[in-house]
Amino acid sequence: MRAAVGTRKLTLDGSSDAVAAANLQSRIEELAASVGAMISSTESLPAEMRGGYRRIGLRYVLNGPYETLVKLLARLEAATPPLVVDNLHIHGVLRARRAGAAATTGLDAGLDVYGYRANENPGRRQAMISRLAIYLLLTGCLVFGAIVFIELQPAATDEPALSELPRRPNMPPPIRRQQSARLEELLATVLADRCSAAPDVRHRLLPTMAEAPPISPTRA
Fold this sequence. Notes:
The chain is α+β, with helices and mostly antiparallel strands. It has helices at 17-35, 66-77, 122-152, 160-164, 181-211, and strands spanning 38-50, 53-64, 84-95, 104-118.
């Protein structure tokens, strides 16, 4: 397998052990049909962890002439992805033909064929799912907290008393007059000037009245 790293595909296709086993079985049936070997039975073997890969195995019972079985073994060795043949047993069997024909000697072969599937780390996938769930939970908490903060925040109103009164449809908005500090100072100055000028006017009127000639009584 190390020699085939740079030139051939190493692993079986399939997202699970069952799918990879089905692909392996289909591949071996194609190879057996290409050389003329007959498959008598097929058995699935339990998948096992081997290093960073999942080992997928099938057990076969084949029959055919010696040359056919040799060709099949050569095809299995050169297959892509690489396959491993183990537990090989070959024994001869005498098979009788139809009446008038001579009996022939054939071979039955039993062997285990293994392929390898890339192992997906379930712990890493579970960690990613857990991390995503935590992120979604934190986002939901932040959104809920923002909604609660907005709902509990008091509304700022510049005219609380006026805004609470219902307005008539044709009523104009109220106009507020702001008192000017400058106007109050001018008004106080004018009043003070008038008050100070009142005694001078009285003093001026008294001498004028004293200098006026007396009014003589009118004779009848």
